[in-house]
């Protein structure tokens, strides 16, 4: 049930992330000047103002900071209900992620998750999260 | 220089609020503006400025053409959805206070139920070619794609941090619907709910029930803003603008400010501090408030950010009918956007004006100051209206 999924807008500042998901890497932007990590990515370091940036590949593990169970209305390309979490990665950044194989009454703040991949097609792979 | 009491809302107007207006969004706005001008005894010839939401589909010049206005000297738009509501009044107030324009109309009109429904997943929001679209890449593809879902994410965390419950959110819906029940212009006129009704309503996005979510509505509202001096010569008692503020927090996003250590809505704290600074007033000076209520949890968080109570204390603050008529801080006496209609916050500003004029169907006794806020979870705005 992934046909017709909403595709991300991808720009120069975020392309590295989506290239990473294609090869099974959860890439977190890292400043080449000061080492600060950030998500979501952007062109200018919020710590030292540098534009020179690379990335680290995250371990792919994290903890549920918050979550929702989306029951209505329909979401393109998804089967309802959808469990969606804010995941605090062990690297210190936070991201929104769809949680699969965790039921709506099992999900809770503090649950440990690990990343996995939902290959949509040749051009898009979405990160998803499973119980660690 | 300050904006304090330099300008006033002199006229208010609206169409009926419905689920299918049967006419264009442009026509709705034109009708609302005509009503607002007639309300204060002005005509289209007096208008030399317009301001609206970036999201509005009717341009200032299109509205001016239909009204038969003359030349315009001022036109502006504010971004970020419902966060624009009170900022349109701020734009107008700044324009008339500085003499940039003499008579500015703020308007918002849409068929938000019968045409473009805001409660659905918006592909347009996810694919807009700008940084907002790029920001939405981190939520929509993951399935987080409705306003309700983005708010629910904040609500879960708020419940976890402070022990708030779904019943606490439900008390906002009960208050709104009680007030709508006696407002003939409200969609839910004559239809109050109980907390049990709220709890029994179906889940939309856990932890939000259906009755935590505002309506989708068709309709338009317009406001006429002139200088305080001019307002005194017009047909209605002026609602003086004691303060008008915008606010954006650190690391701000549109509906998804999730990357701050402590999430929440600090942007409304920015608005509150600025309103109190400009006006010299504080929470204790407000006899009532119109708090933006697209979803109930943000009403609680607003009370905290605006200084009516401490962080995490809103559940206690709103208990025992405190936010209902007769309580210590009645809110949303028109029924709010859950009860009256969802006109992106503009109908709440009109109710604030009616309370200042003492013409609300649910009058609060001895009103001197009314706080009105705009959309939450987004860069937002607020105003203080005074007698
Ligand atoms: Zn840096």
Automatic annotation (TrEMBL), chain A:
InterPro entries according to UniProt: ChsH2_C, ChsH2_Znr, NA-bd_OB-fold, Thioester_dehydratase-like
Gene3D superfamilies: 6.10.30.10
Domain ChsH2 rubredoxin-like zinc ribbon per the UniProt entry, residue ranges: 18-49
Domain ChsH2 C-terminal OB-fold: 58-117
Pfam families in alphabetical order: OB_ChsH2_C, zf-ChsH2
PANTHER family linked to this entry: BLR3430 PROTEIN
Protein name: OB-fold domain-containing protein
From TrEMBL, chain B:
SUPFAM superfamilies: Thiolase-like
Residues in Thiolase C-terminal domain copies: 260-380
Classification via CDD domains: SCP-x_thiolase
Membrane-spanning parts: none
Gene3D superfamilies assigned to the protein according to its UniProt record, in alphabetical order: 3.40.47.10
Domain (Thiolase N-terminal): residue spans on this chain: 22-228
Protein name, entry field: Lipid-transfer protein
């Amino acid at each position: 049930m992934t046909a017709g999924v909403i595709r991300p807008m991808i720009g120069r500042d975020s392309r590295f992330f989506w290239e990473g998901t294609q090869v099974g890497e959860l890439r977190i932007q890292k400043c080449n000047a000061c080492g600060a990590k950030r998500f979501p990515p952007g062109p200018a370091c919020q710590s030292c103002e540098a534009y020179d940036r690379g990335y680290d590949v995250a371990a792919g593990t994290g903890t549920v900071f918050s979550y929702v169970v989306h029951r209505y209305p329909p979401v393109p390309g998804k089967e309802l209900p959808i469990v969606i979490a804010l995941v605090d990665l062990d690297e210190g950044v936070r991201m929104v992620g769809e949680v699969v194989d965790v039921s709506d009454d099992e999900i809770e703040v503090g649950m440990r998750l690990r990343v996995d991949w939902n290959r949509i097609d040749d051009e898009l792979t979405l990160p998803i999260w499973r119980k660690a | 220089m300050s904006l304090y009491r330099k300008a006033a809302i002199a006229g208010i107007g609206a169409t009926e609020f419905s689920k299918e207006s049967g006419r264009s969004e442009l026509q709705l706005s034109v009708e609302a503006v005509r009503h607002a001008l007639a309300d204060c005894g002005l005509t289209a010839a007096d208008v030399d400025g317009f301001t609206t939401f970036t999201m509005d589909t009717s341009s200032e010049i299109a509205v001016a053409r239909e009204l038969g206005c003359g030349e315009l000297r001022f036109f502006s738009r504010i971004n970020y959805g419902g966060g624009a509501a009170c900022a349109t009044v701020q734009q107008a107030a700044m324009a008339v206070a500085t003499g940039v324009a003499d008579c500015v109309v703020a308007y918002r009109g849409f068929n938000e139920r019968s045409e473009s429904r805001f409660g659905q997943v918006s592909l347009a929001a996810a694919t807009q070619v700008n940084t907002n679209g790029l920001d939405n890449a981190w939520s929509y593809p993951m399935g987080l794609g409705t306003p309700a879902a983005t708010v629910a994410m904040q609500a879960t965390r708020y419940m976890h941090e402070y022990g708030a419950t779904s019943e606490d959110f439900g008390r906002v819906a009960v208050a709104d619907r009680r007030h709508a029940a006696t407002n003939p212009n409200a969609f839910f006129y004559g239809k109050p709910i109980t907390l049990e009704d709220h709890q029994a309503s179906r889940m939309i996005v856990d932890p939000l029930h259906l009755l935590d979510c505002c309506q989708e509505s068709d309709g338009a509202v317009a406001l006429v803003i002139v200088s305080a001096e001019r307002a005194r010569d017009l047909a209605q008692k002026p609602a003086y603008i004691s303060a008008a503020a915008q606010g954006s927090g650190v690391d701000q996003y549109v509906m998804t400010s999730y990357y701050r250590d402590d999430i929440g809505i600090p942007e409304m704290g920015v608005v509150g501090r600025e309103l109190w600074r400009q006006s010299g007033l504080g929470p204790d000076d407000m006899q009532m408030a119109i708090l933006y209520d697209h979803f109930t949890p943000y009403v609680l968080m607003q009370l905290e950010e605006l200084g009516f109570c401490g962080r995490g204390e809103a559940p206690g603050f709103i208990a025992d009918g405190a936010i209902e008529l007769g309580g210590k801080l009645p809110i949303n006496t028109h029924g709010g956007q859950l009860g009256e209609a969802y006109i992106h916050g503009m109908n709440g500003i009109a109710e604030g004006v009616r309370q200042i004029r003492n013409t609300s169907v649910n009058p609060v006794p001895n009103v001197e100051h009314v706080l009105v806020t705009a959309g939450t979870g987004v860069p937002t705005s607020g105003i203080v209206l005074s007698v």
